[in-house]
């Protein structure tokens, strides 16, 4: 197997991004670092990935929309649908076609990111749903194909991302509960392999610490962002922590499952326990009680991803766009009463 920039990075003791910049003559690399990297590249007989570069030069006006975990079993498509609509509308307006491709962790091991892009003739790619341990997370950097990730914080010369400020959003949700007088606040998070799960837990911790409250690991449960999992998690948490008066859920779907199960268990929402979600999907408006939530503009995430990708296809470097979250207070949260 021919050497890659990952091999150079490992031998030089630097990041893949630093190697890529050195090989492409970017000016923000120290001269001694560039010299070291070029020397190692020669020693390894590294050849630039001209195939990938030719792919970019041969315009097809086709954007690849690669979604990991796309299946009929996932109700989380409430979130995906709005992002996809934003991508499709903006791409159409810019005279680009969008080709949707579903994948998963196992498929990523069988076909590399570069091979997939070559086979499908993508000018560039928008990538969604990948986990922290998915192969494509590293391969998007190595492939050097213009790529925009949704909710995965990676920036290189050929890669950028769009996300909501998940840390701030979680802080806002927990601070809302704290302002209502709640002090024993549980969290039902998504799975540990999601970047947004890590960020939302960080925001949960920051809000507690800012108010002089300790973070307790036993107050947090992990799910897959789905309603059924949220329902299962809340049973265990409430049995262990009878003092809890509020729950922050990392998605609106988790919150839906939590509220449904709480009512089955005899809890009144919000009189006995307040619940707040994250996403701002339409379900929250029509459920009973209407769900307090942190709204993220999923449609704008989609349009922003297309705009960023086209800028990169026209020669710009990757960057990040972080959208502001909005607190929506409805009927599922209430001031605590003694």
UniProtKB/TrEMBL annotation:
Pfam families: LacI, Peripla_BP_3. InterPro entries: HTH_LacI (IPR000843), LacI/GalR-like_sensor (IPR046335), Lambda_DNA-bd_dom_sf (IPR010982), Peripla_BP_I (IPR028082). One of its GO terms (molecular function) is DNA-binding transcription factor activity. Residues 3-57 form the HTH lacI-type domain. Keywords: DNA-binding, Transcription, Transcription regulation. The keyword Kinase does not apply. Gene3D superfamilies: 3.40.50.2300, lambda repressor-like DNA-binding domains. This is LacI family transcriptional regulator. It comes from Caldalkalibacillus thermarum (strain TA2.A1).
